Each structure stands twice: as structure tokens, then as C-alpha cells.
Amino acid sequence: MRTHRLLALALVGTTGIITTASDAPASADISPDITQLDLVGPAGSETFGADVLVLSNGNYVVTDVLHDEGGVADVGAVHLYDGMSDTVISTLTGSTASDEVGSGGIFEVGDSNFVVASGDWDNGGVVDAGAVTWVDGEIGLSGTVSATNSFIGSAASEWVGSGPIVVLTNGNFVVGNGRWDGGKGAVTLIDGNVGMIGSATSSNSLVGVTTDDGVGYDTPVALTNGSFVVGSSTFSAIGANGGAATWSDGEVGVTGPITEFNSLLGEAGDEVGSRITPLTDGDYVVESEYWDGAGNDYGAATWGNGEGGTVGMVDATNSLVGSSDDDLVGRSVFPLTNGNYVVASQYWDGPGTDLGAVTWGDGDGGTVGEVSDSNSLVGSDNDDRISNGGIFLLTNGNYVVSSTLWDGAGADLGAATWGDGATGSTVGEVSAANSLIGEFDDDYISSSGITVLTNGNYVVNSPDRNTSDLRTNTGAVTWGDGNGGTVGVVDASNSLIGGDDYDGIAVGTQTIALTNGHWVTASLLWDGEPGKPNVGAVTWGNGESGTVGEVTLANSLTGPDQFDFVGGGGLYALPTGDYLVASPLVDGDGVDRGAITWGNGNGGTTGVVSAANSLVGTADNDRVGNVRVTVLDDGDYVVRTPGWGADNLGAVTFGSGSGGVTGPITSANSLVGTSVNDAVGNVEIVDLDIGGYLVGTTSWDDAGSPDAGAVTFGRDSLGVAGAINASNSVIGTPSGVIRLDTAATRTTSGDSYPVPTFQNRVLLMRLDREPAFATTPPDVDVEIADDETSAVVTYTSPAADDVRDGPITSSCTPASGSTFPIGDTVVTCTATDSGGQTATTTFTVSVTVAAPDGPEVVSLNPGRVFASRASDETVDDLFQGDGRIAAGDFVEVDINGRAGVADDAQAVVMNVTAINPSGRGFVTTYPCGDRPLASSLNYGSAGAVVGNELVAKLSADGSVCVYTSAETDLTIDVVGYVPSWSDVISVDPARVYATRASDETVDGQQEAEGRVDAGSFIEVDIAGRGGVAASGAGAVVMNITAINPSGRGFITVYPCGDRPLASSLNYGAAGAVVGNELIAKLSATGSVCAYSSAETDLTVDVVGYVPSSSAATSVDPGRVYATRTSDETVDEEQQATGRIDAGEFVEVDIAGRAGVPASGAGAVVMNITAINPSGRGFITTYPCGTRPLASSLNYGSAGAVVGNELVAKLSADGTVCVFSSAATDLTVDVVGYIPA
């Protein structure tokens, strides 16, 4: 609920206001984004809110360890609250003075349940028995802790609940009780969704054997697979402090006493189980550095099976062990990301003293036996102490060993050695052949550690590195290859180095890994120009190949003055891949004003720190950057400067992760204090999981209330600025100050963040979220008739809700019922809650003109629309008898509105025939304008009669231009058209394949390919070329031309794969030039294959394509009619029918054959070939009935072989008729169809 601000603040500021734990909290709006709700402890509260746990289900738990109940002091109380309503669900209390219920902590277990640990709880007269109480996170548990609802101690002073409680990855939990049964100890597994009532026994727990065993004192170790291991380093049943490590299943647990049959054991003083390292694959390693073996403290590292445990006595048959006194093998074990592990033994003696060794461990079964140079990386001199600088684990499963004291050829040269994490092949002595090493005494290579990069590579930091010209501690940073290491001597050719004595590049491990794989190093002691010592420098490094050479002003961010120590406050990696540089001692215009500089993670930021590129202080000793910067999860950041201002008012500044914040700190860009020593920002920032962040200031003074404290909300992407006051912050009262719990960032189901205080109340800072739309509304598509320009559209407004601030008002613009024009209109819907918060969502209303019903290619009865000879007639007497077309000239022919073609057709299907050309040449058909480099029809000699059926794109005015390279007569017969709304796409002709050097393709690809050999094929790339879409094309409309074949033959075009029995183009003799336009199905990769039976040159010209979504369908070529006995059809129907007589026709069945459906097809795309005609003549293809005055194919002489691909309209019964003016053989091959 929302209350009047002044009233609410008056309530908050009044002392003595008490509410019961079941009352809903009072509230007050403290900013446009956040409401403060006051949750006050009930009567008897003393530490109400000292600990708050928000469960995964959004409910939350509040403890009051010193709560008094009914006059009984300090019984303690634990309250469960509903996260949505903020009302109490249950309260669990103690019953005896000083029970202090909840003093051992509260832990989430199972599915949003929790357990309450109360080590001081008294079971009647059994003092300090202790209890662990399981509580359902939804319904809670009210009443007092008792033996009927808790897991309790069985004797006085067991203090159950004060020992370790470990929550496993499966939600179950483990309770350790080292004092059970007089000190034998017990460890009990409890179901996180049920809990346990009763006490530990040998039937439900793992227990010790002697009173000194103390099982349960050591904290059990949870494994990644849900199991766990109990370490009992003081287990003494075999020998004093021999120790034990016991594996347990995380679902059923292990019970009974520790024995050699369920545990790994040591002998007296071995302290087995003192340390256990879980591996990433669910297994584990037991580290027993004090295992004696045959001497004293040889040490052992034992691999444990995470699926069943490893049992028996520790020895060299099941463990990696040392061989000399004080080898201490097993002191340091490191789990690799791939499930293997590394054992570092810097005190291993080998043949000397403290040579040191690093041993790879097999994560699938362990590595056993003595450490040696055959299974380990080892030192060569006394006190090399290999691995003394640590083991650094790379993200790719490999590792790097830092050995700063390795001598090599001198004293303490130092080394960094890459290790193979997959097979453990890195063994033998450290040397220049396998390591990055120093050159001079006291180089201490890797003394500032090794920085692991996010891409698997690494950086070695060596601030003590010296130079050959006696410069001391110039320092170096060296990039290392994470897949094989970087070896050799550190120098300027492989490292970023300092130029002066004591530059100390990367001193103090001042190198950080960026999230994008690169790195940044700070050199605090770097000297700038002469006379400016220790200005400091920060240098970006390439994480893929390294950055080498000296640190300079040109490649680094540096300070302007001596002793600025740029980078001295630390470096911070941002989630964006960028970074921040903190330099608290930069002087600027005074002394130590400090600066925070944003750096570009993809190349670095260089230059001098200033107010132009950095956030800077405004007074001496502001020291901006002296306090840890908080990087938010969303990539932005928050800078705390509690010492800002001459009076230490303090400031907190928000910075954008994508560009930073620059200029001096002011109240305009920062949250600031109002009184001396307010020190705003003296508490860590809390990054909220619901967005935004909290600023805690414990020393802020309210009027009349010193150090009352305040908590302020900062918004996502904006932050918060201005002075702290009651309108932007939750403030403390005279009865106590606010304490911000920085450890808990989870918010409740009601979007509240609990803020504990020292005044028996919890401040719930509730983010006022905007309302939420239940779903994204779907787009609305509306079709209108072609004579309409708009539509009235109604739609259902999307529903919105707000869990807190109802009711919701919602409105959309344009509103439902509005008139929407043709095209896309974005509708924006806005929901507003009762608090004024808004949310928007959008969807699109698309109004389109409905496509007319009908086929995507309209087939027509053939109709002549152009005829140059006086003897020929056109359907409308236009464009007839105009005479031969001159060589190199063109004619423009009107198409739209003639011979049945629609007025708005985008392309025409027409048969163009050249008659008696003056010589060899070609015809190009195009949509007027610039003539393309392509041919539509080719004639091989003077006097020829050659035709080709084409799909020709029309110009804007519905005409087509026809160019001829030689003088000729022409006829043009229309047989169909492509409607304006069709998915079939016509393009300007464009050549995409050419074998001859003299021909060019539209994009320079697949040109001058050389002649096609007889009986071979070529593959032509179509998709994405010549205007054809790169994806979504199902077929191509193309003109293929055979030029100068070696003899009579044919070409078959097909979608690669198996070649069909069909022809797409036929050439009758050597030296011919024959073309044909085809609709060819594309392969899955967008290509076509062209097979030639004889050697020939080829050109392929694209003129259009058919999208896969189009109703026009391409099929693999299939023969459906053949007159000769040597030819076969796909179904053996209509084959060997005999030659067609002159002046006769045949009827060819199409529907239901060769991929054409039995019904619904309106036209067929087919290739028709005349073979050995008796003389010059033509063929007309038509839908039976009356034969039109038109030609579909022309043959110029007896004995010719001439083909043409046609779009032929089908008759009502699915057939097509073929007329021939001369006797001839025929083949008909189907390549596609067009639905009616």
C-alpha cells in the first residue's frame, strides 16, 4: 500500500512505535522507484533483524537471538515472513533463558526450506544440548524448539548446532557434532525437504570409536556430485590423531563407526582428513602432509572415488607420497577444470634439500607412488622450492607453476613453467627449454604471480627482473600461450618491460584479466620523463599474442605528476571487457585528489590522467579510488569516496560501464553527505538482483541524531545524485542506526531488499517495479480487396498485471477499431499501475492487398504479338509487317494488354523466332533500358529458322525490347505471363557461366572455365548471383547456350545428384550455336549441373527465379513422350509411338506423370525436341481444341535436332496437344508445373 509521504516519514521518525510480528509493515515512498516498509520486531525483541535470509521462493527469515518471551530472557526467536505480503507466517522460539534460538545461524536447504541452529538450547534439565530445527519454507513452524520438532543433542554440553552445518548441492545437509557420546563425535546427513527429529546414534550417523575421535569437529566437504566427505583428523582408534576420511552418499549417508572398510585411515600423528580438496568431476583428494611413511612427515595425497569412496590405510600403493623427512607431500592440492589435479610439494628434497616438485594427478584414478623426476616437475638445486610462488589454474584445464627461487645458472633467477593438465607430460627438471626464466641473479621471475586470462592464456608478472645494462628491478610482464607455454629468457622481445631502475612493472600483482581475454597491468613505480619519479603507468596487453617493448607515454595511461602512482588503487575488470583504473594519489589541481579512469578493453586507454578522461576529486586528500569500486552485474560501476570534500562529507558516484564518468565529483553527479564526517560511501555497495543498488552510510548525521545512518537506492543505468535526505533515502532514528547487510543481495518475492538495523526493525526497501504484460501480443495481419486503401481493425488489448500496485489501466495507440492504412503500423500499448509506473509493449498491424486468386504463371493460348514479315499476322494487327530488323538494332514491342496478357504483368512468357538471319548471331530480350551482356536466342548460320521460349521481364510501361546482332526477321508469340503479385521473380538477364575467355560473367566468377568435355558435367553456382536470392530460391529461369559443339548431341540440366534421362537442349551438328531457356530446379546448395554428351563451349544467362515458397513447382526432369523405340519414358507410357506425320498432332498425357499432380495443375513446364524432321517447319503446342496461329518451336532444315522449353497451358483433362508442320520424331520432357 502507499501512505502519504509526510505521515509515513513522521511514523518512521518516531521512537517507541511497536508492531507485532504479524502486522503488515508501515510504508513510505522515498523515491520514484522505491518504497520503504518498516518491519518492527514484536514485544520482547532485542536483536530483531540482526540476520535476514531470503529464501529461493521469495519468503524470508528474520532472527532475534536475544528475544525475550513472557519474561524469560534471551530465549531467541526466528520469524518466517511471506515475501509478497510481508506478514509473518510463523515464529519459532526457545523456552529457557539463554536458549538463544538461531545463534548458530540459519541455512537454506532443500526446496526453499531452512534450518535453525541453536547450540545453546536446553532440553529441560539437559543444559546446552543444542538443536537443529528444520522448517518448511512455505508454511513455517510456530511454537518452541523441542525434542518433538528438532534434531537435538543427547547429553548436556553437546551444543548441537554450534558445530559445522554443510548444505550439499542436492539440498540435503550435514550436521557435525564432535562432542557426541563423550567426544566420539557424530556426523549426520539430514534430508533438506523433510528434516530429522531425534538425536544422533550409530544407526543414523557416522560416529567415532574412542572418546578422543571428535568426529564432526572438522567441517565436512561437499562434493560437486551431491556426495560429501567427512574428515576426522583426530580419529585415534588406530593411533593418536591418525585421522580418517570417510566418503558418504549425499542421499542416504553413511552410518556406524569409522573403520578401515568405510574410510581412508592413517597411523599415529598422520592426521588424515585434516584437509580434503573436492575435484571438479565429483571426486576428491585427501591431503595428509603429516603422513610419516618410513620416516617423519613424508606426506601423502590420496585420490578418492566420488562415487563410492577410497578406503584402507594410506600408503604408496594408493597415494602419491614423499620419500624424505619433511617432504610434506600433499600440503597443497589444486583441482584442474578438467577433473584432474596438481600436487605442489615445494619442500620435497629429492637428491638434495627442498628442490621442490609439482606432480600431475589423474582425476580418473589418482597418481600413486613416490614423487620423482619421472612423474613430476622438479628443481635441480637446493632450495629451488619448485612451486613456492603457487600453482595457477588455466581455464582450459592446464596450469602454470611459479618458482621464484629457482636458481638455474645463477641465484634466484626464477621460472614460470606451463603444465599439461590433460596427460601430465610436464616432468623433469625446470630449465630454459620448458620454462620462462630470468637471466640475472634475483630476477625472481613470476614473483608477483601469474594472471590467468579468460581465453586460457596467461601473463607472468616479474617486477624484480633486471637488465644487462645493470638497470635494477625494471620489471617485466610476459604473455604465455595456454596451450603449450612460453619458454626462454624474459627480455624486451617477449615482454612488456620497464625502462628505468625500480620501474617494477607489475609490482604487487597489479595485472588483471579482462573478460574479453585481454589484460591490463599497472606499474605504480614507473618513472615518467626525467624529474618525475613514480608517476605510474597502466598498460593494456593483447591476450591473444602478447604486448612487448617498453612502457611509454604512447602506450599507457600515466600520471601527470611525480608520485601519482597511477593504478595504485587497483584495476577493475568490467563485464563489458573494458576496465577501470583507480589512482587515489593523483594530485590533479591539488594534493592526492585521486581519480578513476575508464579504459577501453579493446586497445587500451592512453594519455595523462585528467578531469577530461577521469572522475576526479575536488579537494586535497579526497583520494578518489582509495576505496574498492563496486562493479555491478549489468556492467556499470559505483565509486565510493568517503573522504570527499574538505569536511569528509563523502560521495558515491555512478559510472557507465560503456564509457565511464568524467569530471570532478559534485552533488550533480554523486550522492553526497550534508555534515562533517558523514563519509557517504563508508559501507560496501549492495548490487540488487532485481536491478539497481543500495548505498549504505552508517555515519550519516540526521538533525539531532548523530550517526543515524542512511540507505539510498541507486537506479539502473542512472544511479542517484544529490544530498542524502528523507526523500531519497531510508534514514535511521535516535534509537539506533542502520546497518546494511552487504552479504545478502537476494530480494524477496515482493521485490523488497531487507536492510537490518540496530533498532529492532528491518527496513524493507521495495523496488516499485513497472507492471508486466502477461504475453507479447501477436502481430495482426489483415487483407483487403485491391480496390480498398485501408481497413478498420479490431484487436484484443494485451493484459497486464502488477503484483503490488493494482489496479492497472491499459491503453493502445492506435486504438482497436481504428482505420489502418495499407502497410505496417506499430501499435504501442501502455500499462500504468496505481503508483504511476508504466510499461509498454508493441505489435504490428499489417494491412495488405489480397493477391488475386489464380496461378503464379498464367498460361494462355499462344498469340502472336510481333511479326516483321508482311505474310505474318498478329492477334490485333499491331506490330506486323514492319520489315526486317537491321543488324545491331532493336525493336520495342508492347506486351501488356495484348493476347490475353494483363495490364500489370511483371513478365511475359513468349516464344521468339529468328527467321532467315543474314549470318551467325544472337538475340537478346530485355526490359528496355541498358542492354545486358546475355543472349536469349542464338542462330548459327544465315538462313536459319531458330526459336526459343523465354520468360522476359517487362519494362515499367509493359513493353519488352528485342536486340539482334545480325539482320533478321522475327516473330514473337505470347504463351503466358507472370502476374504482378506472383512470387516468381524476373530479373534483368545476367551471365553467370562462360567457358570462353572472350565472355564475361556479371560478377567475374565462373568465367573462362574452358570447354566442357564430352560426357562430363559442370556445376554452376546460381544462388546469390545475377539477381537470384542467396537463399529461398527453388528454381532458376535461365538461358543455356551450346557453342561450337564437337558433334551432334544434347545437354541435360538438373539439380546435381543423379542425372535424369531427359534433354534440356539439343545440338544437331558440329559448330552449331544452339540455346534454350529453361526453368531448372536448384540443388540444396543453390546450384545446377549441366551435362553435355559432346565437347562444347557453354554460356548460362539468368533471367529469373522461382522462390521455394512459390506454388510454381520445379521437378527433376522426366520424359513423358517419345516417338522412337530407342527412347523410354519415366512410366513406359506413350513411348515408341512412331513419327508424327506432317500436318498432324499428338495428344500428350501430362497430369499424374513425372511429378505433376493428377489434378490441380494449370500448365506444364516442358522441353520439347524435334528430331530429324522431313524439312523446314515448326511445332505448335496448345491446350488441344482449336490450334492457334503461333509457333512453339522452329526447325530450319531436314535432319535437324531442335528443342525448346515451354510453359504450356493444359487442357481440362490434363493433356497438351503438339502439332508439327513436317513429319518428325519427338520427345517431351517435363521439368515443372504451375498450379491452376
Structure commentary:
By secondary structure, this protein is mostly beta strands. Among the domains are: about 45-160, Lipocalin; about 515-535 and about 550-625, no CATH class; about 770-850, Immunoglobulins (Immunoglobulin-like); about 860-980, Jelly Rolls, CATH 2.60.120; about 990-1110, Jelly Rolls, CATH 2.60.120; about 1115-1235, Jelly Rolls. The chain contains two helices and 94 strands. A five-stranded mixed sheet has the order 3-4-5-6-10, with no helix packed on it. It has a five-stranded mixed sheet with strand order 12-13-14-15-19, with no helix packed on it. A five-stranded mixed sheet has the order 16-17-18-20-24, with no helix packed on it. A hairpin with a 5-residue loop joins strand 56 (about 685) and strand 57. The longest helix is centred in the N-terminal third of the chain and has 8 residues, at about 5-10. The protein is elongated and about 125 Å long.
Task: Give the gist of this structure.
By secondary structure, the protein is an all-beta fold.
Supply the key terms.
single chain; 1236 residues; mainly beta; Lipocalin; Immunoglobulin-like; five-stranded mixed sheet; 1% helix; disordered N terminus; HYR_dom
Q: pLDDT under 50 segments (min length 5)?
A: 1-23
Structural class: mainly beta
| Rg (CA only) | 44 Å
**Number of DSSP-assigned strands:** 94
Q: Which percent bin holds the helix content?
A: under 10%
Q: CATH topology of one domain, anyone?
A: Jelly Rolls
What is the CATH architecture annotation of one domain?
Answer: Sandwich
Determine the number of helices (DSSP H or I, runs of at least 4 residues): 2
Organism: Ilumatobacter coccineus (strain NBRC 103263 / KCTC 29153 / YM16-304)
Protein name: HYR domain-containing protein
Keywords: Repeat, Signal
